[in-house]
Structure formats: structure tokens, C-alpha cells
Amino acid sequence: MLDDLIEDKAVKILVVEDEAIIAHNLIKELNTSGFSASGFVDTGEKALTEIAENRPDLVILDISIKGKIDGIKTAEIIKSQFGIPCIFYSGCDDLSCLKRARRAEPYGYIPKNSTRIDLYTTVRIALQRFRIEQEFRSKDRMLNATLKSISDAVVGLNPEGKIIAWNCGAEKIFGWVADDILGDNVAILVPSYIPNEFPGIMDDLIKTGDFRQYDTLFQRKDKKIFNAAVTISPVDELGGGITGFSLVVKDISDRKELEKQIIDILEDERFRIGRDLHDNLGQYLTGILLKLKVLETSLGKKGIDDDKAIVVRISNHVKMVLDRMRELSRGLISLGLQKMSLREAIHELTLFYSRVNEIEVLFNSEMEYKIVNYRVVVQLYHITQEAITNALKHASCSRIEIVLKTDETDIVLSIKDNGKGFTLNGSSGIGLKIMKYRAGIINGQLQIYSNSSGSTVQCSIPRKLIKEEV
After folding, report:
1. Are 248 and 153 in contact (CB under 8 A)?
2. Least confidently predicted of 39-43, 197-201, 274-278
3. I need a labelling partner for 275 at 20 to 30 A (CA). Which of 192, 199, 390, 450 fits?
């Protein structure tokens, strides 16, 4: 109805004025300007009846009119009941009256001594403003309906991290209703014993204008912890900079649990294959090696040196195969074969790498207690193994130091080398990605630091998240 393409003569205007001469003159001016104003009413009560029956596009009304309600009160009722824009056309110059009129939020104010061009301009601006507001409200209703239908949590934050929007998905996932959480800081969603990443992330997004996607841990209203996939984006107002953030949270607890089950199945299979290598093939190769040793001794006694040399070469090859098989077996069965503690297993691992690679691999444990969660033990063991392997392959290091300790809140494992370091970027090698994935499986945070004097891999796990059983 109020689209820019529609001619002014299609715009219906109702005049509310209790002085007939002024009303007729105003109607004449409006029609001359191209609008459609066919009549007037002289009271607020009549105006409300006329609007209910004929639905004009705009109402121009005097502030001081006859009847029980004046023009200001009539405009307020028109706005609340009909949503039709109003313009005051008045000769009132009383300051208190004008302040009261302003609180009614009219779409314009025209003094009665204004020119035709002033009248035309004010009417056109009022219609344009109303049309824009209608479009905005329509889009806002569409957005609200969309947000209600989204099962993911959609949370709006102001620049200080306070929650200013909270959809139905957020209520279902987190357990808080909007009235209970609006105005609280987003830190309320983060468990107290893990770092609050939001301040740092929001600072980065303000600088870059980019968005961030990552997996993390959140807590519900009942303090239960769950895994979540997060997308946080800055809200950039035109010319106003970053005015807030949009946070989309997806509960991925089921997916994470499935991943853990898959990892457990893979670990069981690795253990089975490693045990077969160690118990069966390893024993066969050891038996062959012992028989070759007996043959070597027998040939030496008989003085058959050429045949003895051949046996020695065969024995060396068998020994190399046996060592390689043991190395593969160690990588496959990790802790499963001997059921060591994590401290014992890492200590044994460092001895093995020191012996095989002829470099200094040190281990220092300050653990106050034994980790009994087998899943946690296995993943930390593999992170250690992967970090050592990466350092040996890429860092050109001569020393690796491993530290396992606990503090008030976390279990911390760190692997540091004195190599040449490397550049961290989004396309980092598969080894780093595997370590991060393994850390995520046990709700840990993996940090990697690297410079020209070496690299450090550090995995931290909140002690409260480690259950006694898998």
C-alpha cells in the first residue's frame, strides 16, 4: 500500500480537526498535493470509529480537539490499537504540551502556519518512515520465528559479553529460560574449572571481523557438563563497528560419546593385533633366532666359516625383523599388554626411544595419584608417543623432556624438545591434528608452542572431568 511505486493519490488520509474551516483548508491542501483526503472528524472518539471502519493510511490530527480525549491521547490509542502513523497539525506552542506530544511518538509535527511544501514533505517522510518500520518489523518477526524453530542454541551477546538474546533452543539445551539469564555474563555457561575462552575470542574477532568455530565444554543450569560445537560471529553495524556477537551452540554430546566408543573399539582391535604380533609372531621369530644361534655355534666348532657367516647374516636380519615387530607391537598395544600405570608406561616408553634413537629422552612425574580411567590413560600415552615421534621426525632435536603433573584443577602433560621449531598454521600436519583429536576425546585442551629454540606440546585435563571408570 505504501510502496514507493504507488502514487500519492492512493494514500488515504484522515483529518481530525474540530474547526471546520481549518479542516477543509487542510483537506484542500492535501488533495492539491496529490493525496486522498475526503473528509474529517472533530473528536477523538469519532476518529477511532472512522479508523476501525475505513483503515486510512495516515492520520493528521490537532492536539486540542473536542471530546473526552485530546489529540495526543487519540494518537496513542491509534498507535497501540491500529498501528497507523499519526502527524500532529497544531498551533500549540506550549512547552509542556509539546513534550507530551513528543512522548506519543508522532511521525511528524506540522505548525498550522506551514506552507504546502512543508505539509507535503512531512507527509511523504512520515509515510516513508512508516513503510521502512513495517518492513523492519516484518523481517524481525520472520527472524524471531526462525530462531524459535532452530533446535540449536542462538545467543546474542553485547560487547562486554552479557547475554541480550536467548532463543527456545538455548532454553532446551541449557535449561535457563530467557527471563532468568538475560543480562548475565556468558561466563555463566562455562564450567568454573576450565578456562573462559570468550574474552580472548571476542577480542580477536573485534580485530579481525572474522568468525570462529570450535568444540568446547559448557554447563547446563543443573551444572551438568556437555560437549558443544560453537560458532561465534561479530555483529557489525554499518559505520558503528562491532556492537555485539552472535553465538550458535550445538549439543554434540551424543556424537562425542559415539566417537569415544569408536575409539575404544579401535583400541581393542589395536590391542588384539599387537598381542598377536607379540605372542605369536614374536615367539616364532625368537625361536628361529635361537635355533640360528645354535647353528652358528655348531658351524663355528666344525670350522665351516663360510656357512657360519651366512647364518650370522640371516640372524642379523631376523633380529632386525624382531626389533621392528616389537616396535610395531609396542605402538599397537600401548598399555594393554602389561596394564601399567600411565607413569610407568611413559617411563618405559622414554627408555625405549632413548635406546633406539640414541637421544636423551627424560621423564619427570609429579603425579599425586594414579589415573584409573583407562580411556584417559591410553589417550595421554598416545599423545606422548605422537609428540615424541613428531619431534624425532621433524625437529632435529637431541633432547626431549616429558613432565606429568597435577595442580589444583588439572592434570597436565607436557612434551618439550630442543629442536628447530616450526610454524603453526591452519594446515599443520596430521600428527598435530591427531593429538588435538585425542585430547578432545577425553575433554582435554591441547596447546602447542613453538619457536626457534624448540617446541612444547601440552595437554590439560580438568580433574573433575575424569571419572573413576570408563
Report:
1. yes
2. 274-278
3. 390
Inter-residue contact 46 to 71 (CB < 8 Å): no
Please give the tally of structural domains in the chain. 4
The reply to whether the predicted model has a pTM over 0.70 is: no
CA distances from 133 to 127, 130, 139, 140, 262 (A): 10, 5, 10, 10, 53
What is the C-alpha to C-alpha distance for residues 112 and 116, in angstroms, rounded to an integer? 11
Q: Judge whether 416 and 459 are in contact, CB under 8 Å.
A: no
The more confidently predicted of residues 340 and 347 is 347
120 vs 127: CA distance, rounded Å: 11
**Which stretches of 199-294 are assigned E, i.e. beta strand?**
212-219, 225-237, 241-251
What are the start-end ranges of the H helices in 107-197? Answer: 116-149, 168-174, 178-181
Among candidate residues 119, 146, 173, the one where a domain is terminated: 146
138 and 16 share one domain: yes
392 near 357, Cβ under 8 Å? yes
Residues 192 and 218 in one domain: yes
What is the residue-averaged pLDDT of the chain?
83
Nearest to 15 by CA among 104, 89, 82: 89
